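Let's study my pick:
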Amino acid sequence: MGTEPSSTAPVAVAAKSTARTVAQHHQAVVGFLFGFFLVLLLYTTLSSPFGSPSSIHIFFDPTGRLGDHFLQSTPAMPTDPNTTAAPMSAPNNFTQGTKLDDGPKSNSTKKDEKRVQDDALGTDKNNRTETKFDGVQGGTTRQAGPVVVDDASDRMEEELIRQEIDQGGNKNHTNNTLGARRKPICDLSDPRYDICEISGDARAIGANRTVLYVPPAGDQGAESQEWSIRDQSRKHLVYINKVTVRALNASQAAPECTSRHAVPAVVFAMNGLTSNPWHDFSDVLIPLFLTARAFDGEVQLLVSDLQPWFVDKYRLILRNLSSHDIVDFNKDSGVRCHPLVVVGLRSHRDLGIDPARAPRNYTMLDFRLYVRDVYSLPPPTIHIPYKEATMNNVAGAMERRKPRLLLINRGRTRKFVNFPEIVAAVRDAGFEVIPVEPRRDLGVEELSRVVDSCDVIMGAHGAGLTNFFFLRTGAVMLQVVPWGHMEHPSMVFYGGPAREMRLRDVEYSIAAEESTLYDKYGKDHPVISDPESIHKQGWQFGMRYYWIEQDIRLNVTRFTPTLQQVLRMVRE
């Protein structure tokens, strides 16, 4: 019997046909989507240089983590004046401009950068990461490739990233965008000094000891801020009057300029502990060198509490640091406008320079050679006088020529009470002696030439040794250290700086019997028997006994071997 055809065959054929049709349709859709994706990618790539400045390009890696971000650096589009910039957390005091010496990033800066990264990544307090762009959750796996994100709804995020880029040193121009973060005007963080840098529209008003920062027109983001600092290198010295620095906001009226100047200005005080040569250099001249030297003379000095004697005594240094007239700031009744005003003086340590923090990595050697150049002393290639003379003179000159020693006798404290006996001992040791008693009215130009002509400078620990700036490289400083555990300050204030300036330092510490304190208090008094106990009572007690009451009677017999050591050093 014949076989009856199966009724399922046409159904199977129809199913296969339908499957092919669906597959072809699916391939067409996939192809269309793939082509659309490529077109979108091409459009994004080509149009990004011309895109909106408010768009941020975010690149994700296949794991879904934020790989990189950058702000499109294109000209800003017109801003709606009615739009208020998003609030942002920022330090209290900021200004525009460039500081002369930017140090390492502060802890607050690092915290700001961490906050920027956390905001961009959506890091919560438990360090869980969640990307917050366009409502896409961070747990979703993404395809590799660029995704354009419009952050118009999140201006805060854009501003934070802009700040991060600017802080990273990638900006090539001053940022005048509304609400843009500005650099600090005043830095009060250093333990020695405070300093303010007002860059842009800076207006100095001497009559009320005030310097104003006037923000650009339309800058609505700046807040009014004010600082009051002592404009010298010792921030805690009460003798220094304060200068007020004020950053105005756009709504505050600024006084009109009575004079405009194209060069920066430095505001600093000349009073305080000056009149002592050590403090003249340590508190004013070295800090002024650090603050103003990098301007190469194109800076004006606005001096508060101006001291005419100081200007006259150090006029050559002041004229070299500034080719412009010195202004008596307290008596200046006008409003002086400068592109940059620095208030205060930088100082690294007592009578010292830290090259790592100094503009152009200046050193104490640089400062000594600078001072010698200002006073037209021989260049550093010239040897100390004794060697120079013996190298250039005829045979036998070495026996006739003696090394020259400048012997300083202090006028009041720590003076040599047996000065004539010391002079005789120095001569007997083989030196030519030049005795000097420094005075305020002694001309620096004349004294600098006398010191330059000597191979050795000798004196008790004190300001007279500050004249070692005029010595030649390789000369010797012989410091007589008073009684009372004075070795450490002697090294810090003079010995260390001398070595940094390529001078040779020799110290002679006197015995208790060589101090007049021995005669006054006796050997059993703690001033003699236990100086450390005196120092522990407070600095004022050490100052009273060992700096002020003490004079020196050198035992020339005990001192002679030190003189012979110095003579050998000079003749080497």
